[in-house]
Design goal:
Length: 123
């Protein structure tokens, strides 16, 4: 059986990505290796960022976090320079960067490497 899961994100510039995750998200890597970083959250979850020329090519959500206060988190991130995406597509429209669905509300932004990051609050 699988024991855990974690996300792996691409970065064209690993130093730039590390700066963004530190400055905007207040996250620092638990491990720094040649060509990749490992981040570990207090929850026990982890994700990696690795250097590759493929960064920024995905058009889908690549990592998502859950928070108890989406509005507060968005305010905090905006003060750190994060810009939230706006969507108006069939089945989803954002208002001030937030899409409200039956059981959650979510907001998306891109990191410096073009990865789509989602922050959600369960309702």
């Amino acid at each position: 059986m699988f024991k855990e899961v974690h996300t792996v994100l691409p970065a064209a510039d690993l130093k730039r990505a590390q700066s963004f995750y530190h400055d905007a998200l207040d996250l620092d890597p638990a491990e720094v290796h040649d060509g990749f970083l490992v981040y570990r959250l207090d929850s026990g979850n982890a994700f990696e960022i690795y250097e590759t020329s493929n960064a920024g090519t995905a058009k889908n959500t690549q990592i998502g976090w859950v928070t108890d206060d989406l509005d507060g988190e968005m305010t905090r991130l905006r003060t750190r320079g994060v810009v939230f995406e706006d969507y108006d597509i069939p089945g989803m429209k954002t208002v001030n960067g937030v899409a409200t669905m039956d059981e959650m509300k979510s907001a998306w932004f891109r990191d410096t490497e073009g990865n789509f990051v989602c922050v959600s609050e369960m309702l």
